User: What shape does this take?
Amino acid sequence: MKRYQKKKSKWNNPGALAVLTVVLILLCVLTVHTRSLRAADADYAAKVQALSAEVEEESKRAEELEEYQVYVQTKQYIEQVAREKLGLVNPNESIVKPNE
Assistant: This one.
């Protein structure tokens, strides 16, 4: 008689079916959340790369400004500004302007 008795399937149990459903829902939620996190990670990586390039450009600009600051303090720069902007000349120089 035991041979012919109907075996109960694991899936006929409502508790096991509920657990399986919950596990599948959690798996779906985790998959969707993982994809959104990967997309956000890619966005952040692009931002980091852009900011790194900007930092490099600004450091080059800072070096140029330091060089310009040193140049501004030289006698050559002072003479250049005096000639171009103020129209001054050295005492032993004469200015020749073309006739217009």
